[in-house]
Specification:
The complex is a heterodimer of chains A (491) and B (107). Chain A has 491 residues and is an alpha/beta fold. Chain A has 14 helices and 23 strands. Chain A has helices at residues 30-33, 54-68, 82-90, 96-101, 126-139, 152-155, 159-176, 268-273, 295-308, 322-331, 337-341, 357-371, 390-406, 423-431; strands at residues 22-23, 38-39, 43-48, 73-77, 105-109, 117-119, 143-147, 179-185, 203-212, 215-225, 234-240, 243-246, 262-263, 279-280, 284-289, 313-317, 345-349, 375-379, 410-416, 436-445, 448-458, 467-473, 476-478. Chain A is elongated and about 100 Å long. Chain B has 107 residues and is α+β, with helices and mostly antiparallel strands. Helices cover 22% and strands 22% of the residues of chain B. Chain B has a 4-stranded mixed sheet, with helices on one face. In chain B, a hairpin with a 4-residue loop joins strand 3 and strand 4. The chains are: A alpha/beta (491), B alpha+beta (107).
């Protein structure tokens, strides 16, 4: 049954498969999408509406260059003054003045006040070139940000001169060999108001900020990237206290490793049902059932077992608070608190309605990347479905699961089935992504409450087809087969 | 780098404002030559004896560009009398230069 062979994964790595010289942005996700970063020594246009995050993206490229890649930078800003920008960046924990003092960053604030200027006759923008050149030389800049150069159009009236000078400027930047980021405001029917995309032919990144059902999502798309294979999808991205992070669409090519080692479910009889050894490491397990069937208890056993093995375990909660979960599980004899204290178990609780799906997804990616778990539990994954449409949820979960698989993280997702709905219909959304699917149910027969569990599917292993009855006791899930309780039939 | 034309113009007439003008250029180009020529012409005609022209070549002193917020060249900056005024271009349109210098009311 185990047909998934060990296929080597080929995620992007620095220096791998990069067709053109790239300048890493240091932005999580963006370097993956672009296979290494922005075109080195060439201008990139970043456009988007007001508040779409273009200035932040540009600044992050600049600051990461100065801090992490030994590439000093120049910020030429046409909009905010240097103090305001320093304030914006300070909220991300970065002290721009330090960088300026250390000669890693030069800032030139360009202000054009139309009311102060009289235009008479021929001119050019050589003054701008001189300033940029001077700033570049003063720090030996390798990166340059122009934010937002289109402001010149409101300051100067001769658009013919402006256009030809901008064309010259972008060519000049290329001649200087600097990696430049030029921001532009989204225009009607055009990427930018002044059609800057016409001048910047190397790379164009479009940012978008949408509010749907009062939930805001940010998306990024690489519109154009000459000479480089790049993802053309829209990628969700997040701006938070640690800056900007983009979520690359996972390798949809299904190139995950298929490890052969197994991890225990934490319940010996259940391991027995799963070919005697439990789940495959790096696989994804769906546990579905109606309310009160023991899904979270099953997940708690799994987490407990992982921590006992000394593995790191991350648990996303979309219904209960960590305190509630700890209390409830303690009542059935599973004490997870020592694992939390030991730093092996971390909870991340959020209300599903708090953000859009994308933000949940990006946040989860970030938490996973920060905590580097061996095992991840999402309880219940169905609560996320209230946030978006089925198609959106499926896309999001596909990405999430794909990411977990790529990282070889064993995942357990619990799924709450509304009463009286057939399992197959509600869960076709995600079931195809699952390696193992456990179904829990309960039934009241002659005054007694029966709980049952069966393995609906488990790829790559000979698994039990039995429906097993179990009890939830103060010692946890008890699956010891009792007389007459192994039955056939549906729940 | 400074071309002062004021020496021959003293003493300034009393009560007349002194015009301190700065002309920013980038190298010797036809536009910069033209601008200086036009400027001198206008000053002699309208500000005789009460102007100073300081010429700054940004190719020699690039650090001076940011201070006066120079982008375009040539740029003429009227530093005195206040407020500061900027006139960009080769100053070939005398009427607009005079308006820019507040020597003529905008029509």
């Amino acid at each position: 049954m185990n047909t998934e062979k060990l296929v080597p994964v080929a995620p992007w790595r620095p220096g791998l498969g990069s067709d053109l010289p790239k300048a890493a942005t240091g932005i999580r996700g963006l370097d993956e999408i672009t296979r290494g970063g922005l075109p080195r020594g060439r201008p990139t246009l970043v456009c988007g509406g007001p508040g779409s995050g273009k200035t932040l993206l540009a600044l992050t490229v600049l600051i990461n260059g100065a801090l992490s890649f030994d590439e000093p930078g120049v910020l030429m800003t046409f909009e905010e003054n240097a103090d305001e920008i320093a304030g914006d960046v300070a909220s991300l924990g970065i002290d721009m003045q330090n960088l300026v003092d250390a000669k890693k960053l030069a800032i030139d604030y360009v202000r054009v006040e139309r009311s102060e200027i009289e235009e008479t006759g021929e001119y050019d923008l050589e003054g701008l070139f001189v300033r940029l050149d001077y700033a570049i030389r003063s720090v030996g800049a390798k990166r340059v940000v122009l934010d937002t150069i289109e402001s010149l159009f409101s300051g100067l009236s001769n658009t013919a001169i402006l256009r030809s000078e901008l064309r010259r400027l972008f060519r000049w930047l290329k001649d200087q060999g600097v990696t430049a980021v030029i921001t532009g405001e989204r225009g009607e029917g055009m990427l930018t108001r002044q059609g800057l995309e016409e001048y910047v032919s190397d790379a164009v990144i479009l940012l978008d900020h949408r509010v749907h059902d009062q939930v805001s999502t940010r998306r990024l798309r690489v519109v154009k990237y000459r000479g480089t294979y790049h993802g053309t999808n829209e990628y969700p991205f997040l701006i938070n206290q640690s800056g900007i992070s983009v979520l690359p669409v996972s390798s949809m090519a299904l190139q995950h490793r298929a490890p052969l080692d197994r991890v225990s479910s934490g319940i010996a009889p259940l391991d027995e049902m799963l070919g005697g050894k439990g789940y495959y490491r790096g696989s994804t397990v769906l546990v579905s059932g109606t309310a009160g069937t023991g899904k979270t208890s099953l997940a708690a056993h799994f987490m407990d077992a992982a921590c006992r093995r000394g593995e790191r375990c991350l648990c996303f909660l979309f219904e209960e608070s960590p305190a509630q979960l700890l209390r409830n599980m303690r009542s059935i004899g599973i004490d997870l608190e020592p694992w939390v204290d030991a730093g092996l178990l971390q909870f991340h609780a959020d209300r599903p309605s708090r953000y859009g799906l994308e933000i949940h997804l990006v946040t989860m990616h970030q938490v996973v990347a920060d905590f580097t778990p061996d095992v991840t539990v999402i309880d219940p994954v169905t609560n996320l479905m209230t946030v978006g449409t089925y198609a959106d949820v499926q896309a999001m979960l596909t990405r999430m699961i794909d990411h977990l698989k790529t990282e070889n993280i064993t995942a357990m997702l619990t799924s709450l089935i509304p009463g009286h709905t057939t399992i197959e219909r509600t869960e076709t959304t995600i079931s195809s992504l699952m390696d193992t699917w456990l179904v829990l149910g309960n039934e009241d027969v002659s005054g007694r409450h029966h709980r049952g569990l069966y393995v609906l599917k488990s790829r790559g292993m000979a698994h039990s087809n039995e429906l097993r009855e179990f009890a939830i006791t103060d010692q946890g899930l008890d699956m010891r087969a009792q007389e007459g309780e192994v039955r056939d039939g549906s729940l | 780098m400074e071309v002062s034309n004021a020496a021959s113009a003293s003493p300034f007439p009393e009560a007349a404002e002194i015009y301190r003008l700065r002309l920013y250029v980038a190298g010797t180009t036809p536009k910069s030559v033209q601008a200086l020529r036009n400027l001198k012409h206008i000053c002699e005609a309208h500000l005789q004896g009460r102007y100073e022209i300081e010429m700054i070549d940004l190719l020699v002193n690039p650090q001076l560009a940011a201070g006066d917020q120079i982008l375009a060249v040539p740029t003429l900056v009227r530093r005195l009398p206040e407020p500061i005024k900027k006139i960009i271009g080769d100053l070939s349109n005398t009427d607009r230069v005079l308006v820019g210098l507040d020597l003529r009311v905008r029509e």
